Amino acid sequence: MSESQPLLHAESITSGYGEGIVLHDVGFTLTAGQSLAVLGRNGVGKSTLMLSLLGHVPLRSGKIAIRGVDVTDKLPHERVTAGLGWVPQGRECFPSLTVDEHLVIATRKGPWNRERVYELFPRLKERIKNMGNQLSGGEQQMLAIGRALMTNPSVLILDEPLEGLAPVIIAEVSGCLRRLVAEEGTTLILVEQRAAFALEMTSQAIVLERGRVVHASSSAALAGDEELLDRVIGMRKLHETAKELAADEAAIP
Predict the structure, then answer these.
(1) Which candidate, 150, 149, 126, places its Cα nearest to that of 136?
(2) CA angle centred on 229, ends 223 and 231, rounded to 5°
(3) DSSP code at position 123
(4) What span, in angstroms and rounded, lies between the C-alpha atoms of 123 and 143?
């Protein structure tokens, strides 16, 4: 892949469920080293966009390319093989598999292996023989991230990775995500209600309203646009989530 060729290119995506259209002409491009925050109020199509990228929601029109290869008509597992890693909202851990088995079944060739995942999440190594339904919500989230890393993705897609977690676990998971970006150079697409965290973690941002992109800019520029943030997500909420995250991180022993 040339330096100028995008890792992921989404062009004019229109998709939905049944007869209903949720997304209208949505597009963005990510190159190596970039990450994207997808923001907007609840119900604007953020999760539908993630599922469309992954092939779980078929496109009505548009194009998706990974490393210059058109995957618009590819099945979900083929898109994973092509380079998309998926951390779903709700974690989706298997109750009948151990922690280690979750990682083994996701293994694809590359630098991420079980040893590196256990180093990133020591809690998982302590629970290595526990079944998926024997883990706390935070441990399941760590496992979902570790499982996605085992596919050695070019782009890691995370849908609400901090949702429903205890403050200490939020701090632990967010710290690991920061490490993936800062030290590993991982390219992320991040859907997260904690907008301050999402903008801090990423270089680019888009805001959705009613299934359409109403704003696209650098994350730093959006973080500094209080008027826009107040309109699309509520500036009060942005300040509150920033304070919450700071408090969560201060709770780490």
Answers:
(1) 126
(2) 170
(3) H
(4) 10
